[in-house]
Specification:
Blueprint: H1 11-31, H2 46-52, E1 61-66, H3 91-106, E2 108-113, H4 122-126, E3 131-133, H5 138-141, H6 151-157, E4 164-168, E5 176-179
Parallel strand pairs: 1-2
Antiparallel strand pairs: 3-4, 4-5
Helix pairs in contact: 1-3
């Protein structure tokens, strides 16, 4: 199942839709079943037919959110487990954090993008497995959000060129530098 949220005119409308989608995913798992409209898929697909009947949840849910810092900004004060104080937490931030915290057990995968990790809620960084980092200034790299990166790698990150990035994941012993080559017609 794919939910594509088109660009909406205001941030409030976008936050409402994103929060509603996250709330629906959380409710789906708390209720223990899935209801998919019959017209969404053609007949004959056994897995889809079982999901339509409400007997199976999807094996994986993949969520892409660009500019997540708009919906989950860094809070001023924090509470254990969530990082945002109860008074500062918006409804969309609350739903995103619920999905984030329970995501691993539900096989819910969140891909998010933002320019600076220091501007987003710390619990998002703490619950992230794979970090993809492109060229950044040393002032941004010195924030706690990049504590998983050693000083030598931070120096390399500050000198990256277009098409280069660093992958950091606990499964890898060292960060991995990836270089996307230019198309052959653009090479010298």
């Amino acid at each position: 199942m794919v939910i594509d949220i088109a660009m909406l005119p205001t941030l409030d409308e976008q936050a409402f839709v994103v929060g509603d989608v996250m709330k629906t995913i959380n409710e789906m798992y708390s209720l223990g079943h899935v209801s998919i409209p019959d017209e969404a898929y053609g007949p004959g697909d056994v897995e889809i037919d079982e999901a339509i009947e409400g007997t199976k949840k999807p094996k994986y849910i993949v969520i892409f959110i660009d500019e997540i810092n708009r919906f989950l900004p860094r809070g001023e004060s924090s509470t254990p487990g969530f990082g945002i104080s109860m008074s500062n937490r918006s409804a969309v931030a609350e739903e995103l954090l619920k999905t984030l915290i329970t995501g691993k057990s539900r096989h819910c995968i969140l891909f998010s993008a933002q320019q600076f990790k220091s501007q987003i809620e710390p619990s998002l960084n703490e619950n992230t497995g794979l970090h993809v980092i492109t060229k950044l200034g040393l002032s941004e790299l010195s924030s706690n959000s990049y504590s998983m990166v050693d000083d030598t790698t931070k120096s390399v990150i500050s000198k990256l060129h277009k098409g280069e990035f660093i992958l950091v994941h606990p499964a890898f012993r060292h960060p991995i530098k990836i270089d996307i080559p230019k198309p052959s017609f653009k090479r010298p």
